[in-house]
Structure formats: structure tokens, C-alpha cells
Amino acid sequence: MSIISQFAMVVIILMTGIIIFYANKSLKKAQEEGESFQNDWNQYILYKEKSRSVREKNSFPGASQVAVAEKNMTRSTEKKAGPAESPITLVLFDGDGNLLKNILVAQYPFYIGRNPKNHLYLDDIRIAEKHCIIYEEGNQVILKDLGTANKIMIEEGLVDECILQDQSRFSLGDYQFLVKKK
């Protein structure tokens, strides 16, 4: 082999190593953020079919009351912590519709995610470590996704943000929520 051929082989081997290194680094970063690339295609299809069947069964009564915030409207999620002027109760159900618990949201901001440091910890691979935030803006209570891949599911589909009203419903991963206002 000529020197040029040997040099080209070394360059190819080095480039392959660099690509593998950065791919692994990106995968680790995505896993830390709760976005898993290891879900196989069959799990994805089953999840989509289940989401479709949930919507078809009309399991979101009252979700039509949820007003989807306009996409061009931006809101800061850096809200001042404090007691809620409009406390809500989240009724939490599992994927089969079994009641798990009632959660009083009496202080905002209120974080939901897969990290145990959140106000509400949910153990589901489809939920990011810091998945969403609930906060008050004026006299409205807002649920906002924090940039995750799986978003927030309401009757109308996946959304980044919605207004929580009495009897509105949403789901994160395999968990379903019913909102009750006092």
C-alpha cells in the first residue's frame, strides 16, 4: 500500500471514532433529559394506537373547555413562587383509568416530571425529567410543556400549552389528569 492509501485509512478510522464518540454523547444527553432513543418501533406503535383509542373513546369529557393558547403568544415560566390565588386539585389516574390520588396545587409554579425533585414525580419513560409547569397568569391557570418531545395530550391532540379549567383533562405519558377548581 502506498503512503497516501495508508494515510486515507487512518483518516477514515479517526473520523469513524469521532462520529461514534459524538453519537454516544448525544444519546447520553438525550437520556438525561428524558428523551429516550431506545424505545423500539413496536412500543411507539402501541403507544400511538393507545392514544388514538383513548381519544376515540372520548375519555376526555370537558376537554373541549380547554383553550389552547395561541402559538405566537409567549409567556415566561419564571414566575414568582407563592401561594395560589386559584388553587386547583389534580385527580391522577393510571393508564387503565384507576384513581391513583388527588394532588392539591396550592402554590405556583408547580413542576411535573420524572425527576423526584419535582412537585409531582411521575415514573414513566415517556415523561421528561422536567416535563411541564403549572402557573398562574392573571386569573388563569396555565399548563405549559417545557420543550419535551412527547408534549401534553388533550382531546384536540398534542399541545405545548393550555389553560386549565374546571373538569378539563390532559395526559402525560400513561397518566391521565382531571382538573378540579375550588
Mean pLDDT over all positions: 77
Low-pLDDT segments = 35-41, 54-79
State the distance separating the first and last CA atoms: 81 Å
What share of the residues lie within helices?
25-40%
Q: Can you walk through the features of this model?
A:
- This protein is α+β, with helices and mostly antiparallel strands and 182 residues long.
- The chain contains 2 helices and 11 strands; from the N terminus they run H-H-E-E-E-E-E-E-E-E-E-E-E.
- Strands 4-3-5-6-9 form a 5-stranded mixed β-sheet, with no helix packed on it.
- The chain is elongated, with a radius of gyration of 21 Å.
- 22% of the residues are buried.
- Mean pLDDT is 77; it is low at 35-41 and 54-79.
Secondary structure elements and pairings:
Elements: H1 3-32, H2 41-56, E1 82-93, E2 99-108, E3 110-113, E4 120-121, E5 132-137, E6 140-145, E7 152-154, E8 157-159, E9 161-164, E10 169-172, E11 175-181
Outline:
With 182 residues, the chain is α+β, with helices and mostly antiparallel strands.
Feature tags:
182 residues; alpha+beta; five-stranded mixed beta sheet; four-stranded antiparallel beta sheet; 11 strands; elongated
